[in-house]
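Example 3.2
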Amino acid sequence: MAHPDGINSIPGSTSLKVFFEIKKLLQERRLEMSLNNKRIVVTGSASGIGEATAALLKKRGAIVIGFDRTERTDNVDEFHRVEMSDFSSEDASIDAAIGKVSGPIHGLCNIAGLPPRGDDAALVLRVNFIALRRFTVTMIPKLNDGASVVNMSALGGFGWQQNIQMVKAALALEDDADLDAFCAENGIGYPSSYFHSKEFVTAWTKQNCLRWADRGIRLNSVSPGAIDTPILGDFITAFGEKVRSDVARIGRPGRSEEVAFVVAFLVDDESSWVNGANIAVDGGMEGMIFGDMFQLNG
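Structure, written as tokens:
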């Protein structure tokens, strides 16, 4: 039998064409409803990758619970304002915000974070790593057995193994640690604090991927490269022409939706055997860097 692309030239082609169109619609419908009625938390839901992730999860049938410092309710089913740098018990703190949410929660997408902006290196570490860790650990009791946690790392965390002693020290930090002192001791400033914060996220995800295995809870991370969001300019300002040249080599920056597709896969049961992975979503930028480092690019 001919390929469906050529069905108009074979007997009974009209019936076959209808069959394949119906099959395609059913497949699309199944995909769109693959997260039907699952309650999924998305931090950073108001903009960028978090916004795109919330929209995609809703399209696939999920009940999306958004957390962000900027109040936006039109793209989620439930919203809670949170200051990721606030570890107190005040109304917008992590603990207070999570306290307003009821379980069960079937997925957690930790997407909120700071770009390389300003000279407060400790704040970048606090929000991008310590807060992500605190949010996750605080949310664990509300997660359903078999839940999936997806942590937003970044291409900037590539090669964390080369800084393993610093990484180990960061993983051992308490939530109330003196991060200014930690940055001073390890020579972390602007803009390197961003890179290091993502190294810590990637390593913490791997370190803890089996921590709640008795409940079937999985942890994975996603590492986007340059993404066309409102904060892309911060990366260009921080890292200069290198960002532009790297983007030119791969052809274009990515889109938030392209990262959201991977996040959605990781919270879906179809990824049930994926655990402790760090998935690059960068158009080949990590491969390009790897090739440059080991002189594989000719």
